[in-house]
Amino acid sequence: MPTRPYVIDEMISAKTIAARVEALAREIHDTFQGTDKLVVVGLLRGSFVFIADMVRELDLPVEVDFIEATSYGDSTESSREVRILKDLRGEIHDRDVLVVEDIVDTGYTLRHVVGLLRAKEPKRLKTVALLDKPTRREVDIKADWTGFEIPDEFVVGYGIDYAQRNRNLPYIGAVRFLAEE
Ligand code: 5GP
Ligand code: MG
Fold this sequence. Notes:
181 residues, alpha/beta, binds magnesium ion, Rossmann fold
């Protein structure tokens, strides 16, 4: 996909992210301590770096699974449609489940995925989002744990892309478009 020229302004450093992931993992560990198995469900693709760092900080028996969801439609509409492109491989019935999302923006994606997973009747279901843009919210949902609240900026890095680029940046940065001459 062609893009306009842009630069990336660092917003959250790799070091700050690492410290926050460690702190989140401690809280998540305390919540799920004693579990026979925690199924950690990453939302593809943006959460792949976050989930990789998160599970390595969790001293619990974990299984890792993924869902890929995509949303369509005008975000000004209240009925934004979320479609599942790739479903879970494993069972979550009567299991402890942690959903790992990169960004909660309007909230439609997380609400839809949580609804689908709850229908499978897990024992417990909790959610963690690395980033939250509360000013963009259109539906009433909040992750149980949030890494960082950020303003309404388009961000990349640490797994998050712009037109499939910049996922491999170790930090999170805001995209700034340059005026074309
Ligand atoms: P929601 O359904 O909450 O509006 O959408 C959340 C999804 O939108 C995120 O998982 C992410 O894929 C995408 N998204 C929201 N904000 C950004 C952003 O700043 N950068 C990128 N690359 N994706 C975003
Ligand atoms: Mg996403």
